[in-house]
Amino acid sequence: MTGTLTYTLPGMRVREHILDVPLDWTDPARGTIRLFARDITAPSRADEDLPCLVYLQGGPGGKGPRPLDTSGWLGHALRTHRVVLVDQRGTGRSTRIDGRRMSAFATAQEGADFLTCFRADSIVADHEHLRRTVFGGRRWSTLGQSYGGFLTMTYLSQAPEGLSACYVTGGLPALEPSAAEVYRRTYPRVQAKNKAFYRRYPQNVAHVARIADRLSEGDVRLPDGDVLTVRRFQSLGIDLGMKPGHERLHWLLDEAFTEASDGTSGQASDRHELSATFLHQVLARTSYSDNPLFAALQESIYGHGAGPTAWAAQGERAGHPQFAEDARPLLFTGEMIYPWMFEEIAELRPFRGAVELLAAREKWPPLYAPDRLAANDVPVAAAVYHDDMYVDAGLQLDTVSRVGAVQTWVTNEYEHDGIRDERVFTRLTELVRDAGGGITDA
Prior knowledge:
Mean pLDDT: 95
Shape: globular
Strand content: 15-25%
Helix content: 25-40%
Structural class: alpha/beta
Number of helices: 17
Order of helices and strands: EEEEHEHHHEHEHHHHEEHHEHHHEHEHEH
Oligomer: single chain
Radius of gyration: 23 Å
């Protein structure tokens, strides 16, 4: 099935595309799923035959951006390119995977087998199908943010003939990925971000402890009925690796408590309860209702060859008692997914059996081809954020040393979301341009 709808947003001409792709590219007989994509041009250039730049969204489980205007990297790209925004399989308007879908499987094994079809190798195959069938088969460029950089390395391993140039921001993976090694490096960085947060807002040391003490007493319910535990509260730290994340967390904590009436005269009592405002915001930030695949596949992105991922974040946490729920100051965790989340979080409960099987899986199809990457001739420009909380700079630079045609910009000016600043994408395009530009079909 294909389809095209065209309309205009401020400063943008948009076309929508819907097509069917195999659920399993290695076994098309398993049926099809829907893939949705948009392409965007400057209105004055909508009818031109422009080169394409496809945005590889972060994740896993990230849908394509829904732009409101042409600020940032998008405006820069629209000067010269048709920009393609894909809802990666399982997200957005592509066939979406959520708790309701997972509940339909008769067994956990069926669910696990289904989820293995939503990794990077399948996402790259979808993009290649889109490039060939909708965009004429010409090479295109990619801009990979975070997990989009992982997709870039898979793309260069599987189908470099489809690529003219690649730009990566904060997301070069290790070529022999190990979930255990990733989290061994991650916990110290997350601890450092916590120290920076409390140094900036020292009043929150006592405030966070007070919230945690109240949660430890039990029976604090979120609006959907889930119990808010200390460990779920700690997971709010996933935002500390973003540029405004410290401020977002600070202002959330600022309204945590509300005075309670003593129940007799309407006078304020000495007892304080967590406010509805706080609980609604915590639910929104920790429910994974918008991107459950992020949690379900988080450790599976490191599945490569032999050996299980084995709940690596949980295993590594045992060696860091400073992250204990009763430790003070209480430390927030980061981009870690734990098995308890699939018990305590309503949207994730239907995934529980399947993700347990994924964590125990002994062998995974390889995602990267080191020999092919070493011989790569597609120009790659990568921004490596020195203090990135999510993707270790050391592992990224090791990958740079093993992949051909890569130019690197290492900086501590930005956090993981540096792509928001137009200067980042501009710098990367200049690196490729000054080295001779991308590969063309001519």
